[in-house]
Amino acid sequence: MDQLPASRTLTVVQLPDGTYTYADPAALQVQQVAPQIVHQHIHHAPPDRTVQRIALGSGVGAGTVAAGVYFGPLLVGVLTAMAANLALLALIAAVCVWGIVTVVRSVGGSDGKAAAKRAGRKGR
């Protein structure tokens, strides 16, 4: 510290490694602030509780609202599964009918073709 002359605008400070240097007094007054922790759910949409608020406001009990919140998505899943099953059954039925009509036309000769035409006309 004997090597550094005194300065009117700067302050002499000792660094962690033991050496001395000039430092601005305004820079020395910087406060260490801990980083702010932000807890954010990035992949989650905020919950929509409009239906629950309306239900509770109209006098429906909390148990009924909780049951609706729990069973609502289950009901949607069950109905979706049923619709998919029915669509698959309809596709299988259409393929079977197409196959039967094709076989009757090819195997039955002229009688089979006439029967297929009659069946087609009755449907209209």
Describe the structure.
The protein has 124 residues and is mainly α. Helix content is 58%, strand content 6%. It contains four helices and two strands. The chain has a two-stranded antiparallel sheet with strand order 1-2. Helix 3 packs antiparallel against helix 4. The termini are far apart. The relative contact order is 0.05. The mean pLDDT is 76.
Number of helices: 4
Shape: elongated
Secondary structure: number of strands: 2
Q: Multimeric state of these chains? A: single chain
Residue-averaged pLDDT, rounded?
A: 76
Largest sheet: 2 strands, antiparallel
- Provide the helix percentage: 55-70%
Radius of gyration in whole Å, from Cα?
Answer: 41 Å
How large is the share of residues in beta strands?
5-15%
Q: Give the uncertain stretches in residue-range form.
A: none
Strand order of the largest sheet: 1-2
SSE sequence, one letter per element = EEHHHH
Quickly give the structural class.
mainly alpha
End-to-end distance: 109 Å
Keywords:
single chain; 4 helices; about 60% helix
Summed up, what is this model?
The chain has 124 residues and is mainly alpha-helical.
Topology (SSEs and partners):
Layout: E1 11-14, E2 20-23, H1 25-28, H2 50-57, H3 62-107, H4 109-122
Antiparallel strand pairs: 1-2
Helix pairs in contact: 3-4
